[in-house]
Amino acid sequence: MTRRLPTVGILGGGQLARMLALAAAPLGIRAVALDPVADACAGQVTELVVAGWDDDAALAALAGRVDAVTFDFENVPATTAGQLAGQVAVHPNPGALAIAQDRMAEKTLFRESGLSTPEFAAVDTLDDLRAAVDAIGLPAILKTRRLGYDGKGQFRLKTPADIDAAWSALGEAAARHGLILEAFVPFDRELSVVAVRGKDGDFRTWPLTRNWHVDGVLSLSLAPAPGTSDELGQAAVAHARAIAERLDYVGVFALELFVRGGELLGNEMAPRVHNSGHWTIEGAHTSQFENHVRAVLGLPLGDTGVRGCSAMLNWIGEMPDPAPVLSVADGHWHDYGKEARPGRKVGHATICAPDAGSLRTRLAEVAAGLGREDQIAPALDVLS
Question: Where in the sequence is the domain holding 64, given as residue range(s)?
Fold first, then answer.
């Protein structure tokens, strides 16, 4: 008799689903991804069902053959997750997904959980925008409340003369999704907490990660975040725990934070495995991907401790030459199997080392080999 393997369904078939499937396989767990796009890259490593988010028959068929459903990006319709929740376990729960999809709801959750945020205001009309600018001041960032990520759906206002241009760029989205104006934060640095919570309430975090973005897209991460005090780290973890418990969250999530003068400000929450946690594949005892699979299927969580220091380099648009990374000790290469396209995440590399000094040496070697000194320079500046 053929043994039925535990199976997790994944809504979305991008690189995060791909890495979830790769992490599930050694555990004896199958993954089935559902995505409207036929060439979604998860299909290169696991079964891919091509169907729309409103395909009731395909969703019912998926629910009937999996033990739990999760998702690999936050723009999966919450209604789809809610529909499936009536047929099979869905983790994180659709309520958590819905809050993370709406920047107003998300910022409100942060404040209710004790995490400060930049000032913000809802914007539905041009008059609302003018009033919000008067109340919040400039510079500020106008964003869509829904569907924006990696710097998309945003417009930075520097002077009152930018108000009309911002409305021309995003006003049409106001009718569909609503807008939010957020005060621009002159932050000292960006951090993220990547955390996991199990069905039994077991809560764990990986060490804080320091991040650098270019044009709103993550470019570089370092973990553990250099120069972070124990007090700041404990506060960040406490905020993540409070949010997870408030949402009855199950699975991995990332809480993105600004540090301003020693104060933590909540930026965004990603209700899924996250780009700033990719380093955990090689740099931690249990990766974010394995722990997410464990959590959603009710298995014990794995150790989130680190093996040393790690740097993650994001490849945007096209893949560079892998040789400089593969030539360095403890260098790891991840090609997502995507076609090159401007602004598209197509892969990443992780460089690991036993200590910060060794990591700096290896990163300098990679920077010279790739000709990517500008991308890697921020890490070299803070590592010693």
Answer: 7-90
